């Protein structure tokens, strides 16, 4: 395929289903990658978006990476990725890794559509299907602290996740007092059971707060304790791991296989229980993510330890194709990007499957396609 046009814009983003609730001014980038391949009278177009929970990458996409894809000539996603990374020095990932990951998502969407396969099947064919699975465990992610009415909104949110069929959830901690966080965990545990509730501190804790929280959470038997401290503060994280026996989850804000190896070497993580959250879009897209999976499995990590961050259909396809441990789903957060296809639900065991539509299947989501349509 040849890429004949790339369109990009920044859009506002909310952590909450109700976008009127203040959400820190979050934005993200959406892109459309238009190919020279025509199907049903229209050019095949791939769509992508940047991280949910960070900010838009428009400058980097427009000025640096989209032109390189446009100049790549007849290409495929792997060659386009090589073209995007030409001249880029290792390290200093900044926001560039997310800009590349955004375009990479759209390139894979286009390539799978051209192959007339859902992305998970296209990836399994491209990279070998020895590990591919049809469906996998999921958790409903949300539980952000509501600036108002949290005590009544949080239980409703948890119950709605359970009613939709999710069997596990993840809520945020670290944005209020520890006592209040413990009360919020109780709310979620009453719906799901404590062993099905993960907590995500969003990298908020310093060393003292991390150790205090770890001691307070230790007896709760939680699903996992995520993003404990600064992503590169391996000293604090290893101290927490030394006293917190339950699973710890890390890696969402690490962007390369070199950083992943540092996490493994210095982060105190335990291969028999801990969770690796690396996000394919954060990690320079699929080539970067696969490099991390290879690096960590070669060091003895099981594939089941990988639960990619993201909460959207792209992460779901990747986890399915690579046979990973499970996936995050954002049923209501970050509309219209999070969640499954319109009307899709987990099965009776809380497992989810990617859609069968060609590509990533964004076309199975009406709100999202209305947003992509604004790219022209
Ligand atoms: Mg997290």
Description:
It contains twelve helices and eleven strands. With 376 residues, it is an alpha/beta fold. The chain has two domains: 114 residues, 2-Layer Sandwich (Enolase-like, domain 1); 242 residues, Alpha-Beta Barrel (TIM Barrel). Helix 2 runs antiparallel to helix 3, helix 3 crosses helix 4 and helix 9 runs parallel beside helix 10. The protein is globular, with a radius of gyration of 20 Å. The site of magnesium ion has 5 residues, from loops. Magnesium ion (MG) binds next to loops.
What small molecules does the structure contain? magnesium ion
Termini separation: 20 Å
* CATH topology (fold) name of the largest domain: TIM Barrel
Basic shape: globular
Q: Provide the succession of SSEs.
A: EEEHHHHEHEHEHEHEHEHHEEH
Low-confidence stretches: none
Our count of domains comes out at: 2
Q: What is the CATH homology-level superfamily of the largest domain?
A: Enolase-like C-terminal domain
Number of helices: 12
- Portion in strands: 15-25%
Mean pLDDT: 97
Q: Tell me the number of strands.
A: 11
Structural class: alpha/beta
CATH class of the largest domain: Alpha Beta
CATH architecture of the largest domain: Alpha-Beta Barrel
The level of helicity is 25-40%
Kindly provide the radius of gyration, computed on alpha-carbon positions and rounded to a whole number of angstroms.
20 Å
């Amino acid at each position: 395929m040849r890429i004949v046009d790339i369109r990009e814009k920044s859009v506002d983003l909310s952590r909450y289903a109700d976008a009127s609730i203040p959400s820190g001014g979050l934005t993200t980038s959406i892109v459309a990658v238009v190919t020279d391949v025509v199907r049903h009278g229209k050019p095949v177009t791939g769509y992508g978006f940047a991280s949910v929970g960070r900010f838009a990458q428009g400058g980097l996409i427009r000025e640096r990476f989209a032109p390189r894809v446009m100049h790549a000539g007849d290409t495929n996603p792997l060659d386009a990725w090589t073209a995007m990374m030409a001249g880029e020095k290792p390290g200093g990932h900044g926001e560039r890794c997310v800009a590349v990951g955004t375009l990479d998502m759209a390139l894979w969407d286009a390539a799978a559509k051209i192959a007339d396969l859902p992305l998970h099947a296209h990836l399994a064919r491209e990279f070998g299907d020895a590990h591919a699975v049809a469906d996998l465990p999921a958790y409903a992610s949300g539980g952000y602290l509501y600036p108002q009415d949290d005590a009544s909104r949080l239980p409703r949110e948890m119950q709605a996740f359970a009613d939709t069929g999710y069997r596990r959830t993840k809520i945020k901690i670290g944005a209020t007092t520890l006592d209040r966080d413990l009360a919020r965990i109780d709310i979620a545990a009453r719906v799901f059971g404590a062993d099905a509730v993960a907590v995500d501190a969003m990298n908020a804790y310093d060393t003292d707060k991390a150790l205090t929280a770890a001691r307070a959470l230790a007896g709760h038997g939680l699903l996992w304790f995520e993003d404990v401290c600064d992503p590169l503060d391996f000293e604090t994280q290893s101290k927490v791991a030394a006293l917190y026996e339950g699973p710890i989850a890390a890696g969402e804000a690490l962007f390369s296989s070199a950083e992943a190896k540092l996490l493994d070497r210095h982060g105190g993580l335990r291969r028999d229980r801990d969770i690796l959250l690396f996000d394919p879009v954060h990690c320079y897209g699929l080539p970067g993510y696969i490099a991390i999976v290879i690096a960590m499995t070669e060091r003895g990590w099981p594939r089941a330890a990988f639960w990619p961050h993201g909460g959207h259909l792209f992460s779901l396809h990747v986890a399915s194709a690579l046979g990973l441990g499970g996936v995050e789903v954002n049923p209501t957060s970050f509309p219209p990007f999070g969640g499954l296809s319109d009307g899709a639900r987990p099965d009776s065991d809380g497992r989810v499957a990617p859609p069968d539509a060609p590509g990533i299947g964004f076309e199975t989501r009406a709100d999202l396609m209305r947003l992509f349509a604004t790219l022209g």
